[in-house]
């Protein structure tokens, strides 16, 4: 799973994070190193769709939070991936 | 490198920079600059421009570029042979000489592949160049020799057998196609937005 939007949503699922925190978290849990342009491209899309929102901050490192609709979207996406992972894993075992 | 990264952030659209530039610069400072990040920022800026302006001009420019390449590659490669001739008759105007060539250049295709250029005309002596283009080097040379013979006069420079061919369409067709596609795509997008805005303003 390397879709940047899904990775960002998954990263925010356990708490608010700013850009660099998301980048390091994604690298830790998915092994994917998102570039700054890719990460902020995903953040832009997700914020425009209302799946995440920026929190007020005096620092340039503005944190983001998953919205309820973002949480719902993430759950749907992960549920759609689940049978693919399950069936793919089973077929690999039997091949 | 930091300077380059700041310049790359400036490549993003203005609306985007107003909202995200400070955050992105902070992220680049934290993550550290590098060539991979520079490439990623360039790609991100291009994507954001395409998203904000619509992809129609870009798609049309690519289509225009492809058409330009196809036109250039489909154009036949032609050999050019030329001869320089001196004609002493005072009445040897280019129009009169073209009439003289009518017996040799019998079809429109041959006329299109032939050029008669005036080099000098003084004291009743006219120097001119006759050129002919053909797909075959020998044919180009033979036709030019026939044209020179039909004109008469003194052949100063006989037609040589050409050694290389050139495409009949210039390579500028390729960028011209891309620019034309960009203009058409931009105009189409503008018309579409204008129509959408008219629909929006006329809505109750």
Notable characteristics:
heterodimer, A: 95 residues, mainly alpha, two-stranded antiparallel sheet, 4 helices, 2 strands, 64% helix, 6% strand, B: 204 residues, alpha+beta, elongated
Q: Give average pLDDT of chain A, whole number.
A: 93
Silhouette of chain B: elongated
SSE string of chain A, helices as H and strands as E: HHHEEH
Assembly classification: heterodimer
Low-pLDDT sequence parts of chain B: none
Helix amount of chain A: 55-70%
Strand content range of chain A: 5-15%
Separate helix tally of chain A: 4
Tell me what the structure shows.
The complex is a heterodimer of chains A (95) and B (204). Chain A has a two-stranded antiparallel sheet with strand order 1-2. Helices cover 64% and strands 6% of the residues of chain A. In chain A, helix 1 crosses helix 2 (19-30) and helix 1 crosses helix 3. Chain A has helices at 4-12, 19-30, 36-48, 68-94; strands at residues 52-54, 64-66. Chain A is mainly α. Chain B is α+β, with helices and mostly antiparallel strands. Chain B starts with a helix and ends with a helix. The A-B interface holds A 18-20, 23, 35-41, 43-44, 59-62 and B 16, 20, 22-28, 30-31, 36-37, 39-45, 47-48.
Summarize the structure in short.
Chain A is mainly α. Chain A is built from 4 helices and 2 strands. Chain A is elongated, with a radius of gyration of 15 Å.
What is the strand and helix layout of this fold?
The complex is a heterodimer of chains A (95) and B (204).
Chain A: H1 4-12, H2 19-30, H3 36-48, E1 52-54, E2 64-66, H4 68-94
Antiparallel strand pairs in A: 1-2
Chain B: H1 2-9, H2 14-31, H3 35-53, H4 56-74, E1 77-87, H5 94-101, H6 108-112, E2 114-122, E3 125-134, H7 137-151, E4 154-157, E5 165-167, H8 173-202
Antiparallel strand pairs in B: 1-3, 1-4, 1-5, 2-3
Helix pairs in contact in B: 1-2, 1-3, 4-8
